[in-house]
Amino acid sequence: MALRFYNTLTRQLDTFEPLEEGRVRLYTCGPTVYHYAHIGNFRSYMFEDLLRRYLRFKGFRVTQVMNLTDVDDKTIRGARERGVSLNEYTQQYKDTFFEDLKTLNIEPAEHYPAATDHVPEMIALIERLMEKGVAYRSDDGSVYFSIAKFPAYGRLAHLDLSGLRAGARVAQDEYEKDNVADFALWKAWDENDGEVAWDSPWGRGRPGWHIECSAMSMKYLGESFDIHTGGVDNMFPHHEDEIAQSEAATGKPFVKYWLHCAHLIVDGRKMSKSLGNFFTLRDVIGRGFSGREVRYVLMATHYRQWLNFTFDTLRAARAALDRLDEFRARLEKTSAGAAAGPAPAWADEALDRFAAAMDEDLNISGALGALFDMIHAGNKALDGGTVDAPTAGGALATLRALDRVLGLLQETGETADAAARELAALRLKAREAKNWPEADRLRKELLALGWLVKDTPQGPELKKA
RNA sequence: GGCGCGGUAGCCAAGUGGUAAGGCGGAGGUCUGCAAAACCUCUAUGCAUCGGUUCGAAUCCGAUCCGCGCCUCCA
């Protein structure tokens, strides 16, 4: 089946055809490392993770680049306020960003270029734009891109530029521009920049924001590549500007498919510190939820849909994941290490439905529906005793194949320690003697140690509570 | 004003012409000393509202109401 994506550029579902057979070049706008990323940021990175994992599932070799914006107004201000160097300031947020990605089981990208490591590439790109006459230097030494020289400007965002006007949201320091919609490629140094400055043909200064993505994507992916993603808010001006400066410089199409992820809201409202509904990943983990519970919630709503994040949803995710874990454990137990045989029909069907759903612009709800139907059919078959070890092994292989996309299964939990096993043995004796009060007392004692006792037809089992 | 998104059960959420997936929650039941898990039955005669097209519409068309986003550096 054909893989299709909703392409912002065409505003329709386009069949995905990579520029190079079997390979996907993917650029995903990454974090500005001036604070701890919040769960809304991670919603986007989760979408990108699902995208890359599904592309790999489909057999593509994926080269993903995620940039780290480590020089902009906010990082400079943060470093100054704390009285540390820009690098020292951003490094801690880079570190925690990668820790958070791990917590969420997000697969690493192939490249994480930092803007400050690529200033020469940016300068070179700006020079190309100057040579082509689409950029100009203002009196203060800043360089701007002239959108009047790029007729296709506004194509991505479908914006009518006549509606743009100089107003409150246009920064005060940009009065030197020919056109209010022209954007900075290079920003001349000013005193707020402190020691943050690079030499350039136009004087000391620092790169504008948009240019880093063009320069770094071209360096790692080439002048034309397949997919570029980001939050909807990046559509304009950021991605529009990227297209303008990239295509004006190279004369080639920049990106074939633009995918944009909708925002996350909390309790029906935009996240904001004043509303008290602003959460970093660390905040949520601190409330006792696991990374994969957050992963499930962030992943389970289609990426172009508003995601309303609530703690109730997180609790529902926990229950759903328990069901998944339980099923996996049953399959593992039934397969008992036997060589995997052919998967049963209910697993094959789930795999087909899963892929058919994901093919359609990553329809995760349909995909999860297929997964849970598989769990239901599988449990039923297991209850009926019609699943032998090789069949269970085959089903398990299918489940793991789905999970290479979903990333929800975790390594099998710890096994009970000697003390817990001792108590369980005592309880079994009490049960055999029909000493129910003692059996129940031992159950409670085990629970206090973190173990839940399940009396199955095959005898008691201990499960991490 | 321009561009765009959305309103489906208690909650979350698929479904873009053929008679409402899935998850969570709830009720009852099977199993069970109890519990857990699993399984079974039930939980939207209806998909914001009103019209229209059609043999047939949550799905197409028109209008209306409501909520929301972007429109210069916010994922």
Structural notes for this entry:
With 465 residues, the chain is of the alpha/beta class. It has three domains: 4-261, HUPs (Rossmann fold); 269-406, no CATH class; 418-464. It has helices at residues 39-57, 73-82, 86-103, 119-131, 209-221, 235-250, 281-286, 291-300, 311-335, 345-359, 364-383, 389-406, 418-432, 436-448, and strands at residues 4-7, 12-15, 23-28, 61-66, 135-137, 143-145, 183-188, 205-207, 225-231, 255-261, 264-266, 269-270, 307-309, 451-456, 459-464. The relative contact order is 0.11. The model is unreliable at 163-174 (pLDDT under 50). It binds one RNA strand of 75 nucleotides through helix 1, strand 9, helix 6, helix 9 and helix 11.
Give the SSE map.
Blueprint: E1 4-7, E2 12-15, E3 23-28, H1 39-57, E4 61-66, H2 73-82, H3 86-103, H4 119-131, E5 135-137, E6 143-145, E7 183-188, E8 205-207, H5 209-221, E9 225-231, H6 235-250, E10 255-261, E11 264-266, E12 269-270, H7 281-286, H8 291-300, E13 307-309, H9 311-335, H10 345-359, H11 364-383, H12 389-406, H13 418-432, H14 436-448, E14 451-456, E15 459-464
Parallel strand pairs: 3-4, 3-9, 9-10, 11-13
Antiparallel strand pairs: 1-2, 5-6, 6-7, 7-8, 11-12, 14-15
Helix pairs in contact: 1-12, 2-3, 4-5, 4-6, 5-6, 8-9, 9-11, 9-12, 10-11, 10-12, 13-14
The protein binds one RNA strand of 75 nucleotides through helix 1, strand 9, helix 6, helix 9 and helix 11.
